[in-house]
TrEMBL record:
Keywords: Signal. Residues 1-21 form the signal peptide. This is Outer membrane protein W. SUPFAM superfamilies: OMPA-like (SSF56925). InterPro entries: OMP/PagP_B-barrel (IPR011250), OMPW (IPR005618). Transmembrane segments: none annotated. It is found in: Cell outer membrane. PANTHER family: OUTER MEMBRANE PROTEIN W, PTHR36920. Pfam families: OmpW (PF03922). Its main location: membrane.
Amino acid sequence: MAYKKALAAAAGIILATAAHAQVAGSNIVSAGWFRVMPNSSSDPLFIKSVGGAPFNQPVPGTGAKIKEADTLGLAFTHFFTDNFAVELVGGIPPRHKIEGTGSFSGYGEIGSAKQWSPAVLAKWYFFNADTKLRPYVGVGLNYTWFSDEKITNSAFQNQVLGRGIPGSTSTVSTDSSLNPVLNVGATYAITKDWFVGLSVSYLPLKTTATIDTKLGPAAGGIHVVSEAKIKINPVVTFLNVGYRF
């Protein structure tokens, strides 16, 4: 009987330590692995202007896609009730490689950019606060912008953007956007303060990259401005460890 009492006491301790882990007023900080998986496609490269004069012609059969990336994710969650929480999510911006498609596919990687995508999510947690495994659904807003955009393929720069004219250079800029976020996931309480979690998010995200090419001295240094409209639409997974305080 003594061992039964000991087992019962141990079980009580375990349940007590897991109780009230995600109650109203709780704060949780989390860190872990972001996997950003774009479902990308693009319109053909569009030449807007040559030497300042409107041109407005697409380059048929061309395109680009965004490759997957991994980075460190960070999140802060506050529980307003036992079931309702608001989460701020960010992390170290991943660098995405950009590959050519269509007639550009032979160039492989043609450019890269860093993606900044902080988001605010409203999340509804199912079950009681003392339940170890708690699935949730969430919805929110994301603001995305890009930095350090550049052409990384010299052959693409020289042959396509520079029209084969020596000394041509290009700069790239991208627009920013506000996007909805759909989110599902679950947390598992290891103790009353430590958690592991996994979530999956979807963002209907698109951007327009503007490429300003200054042709070499043989062409008088005129500017050719092109656009690439890219749908990114990433699925983002976040495997993390969290601490309640």
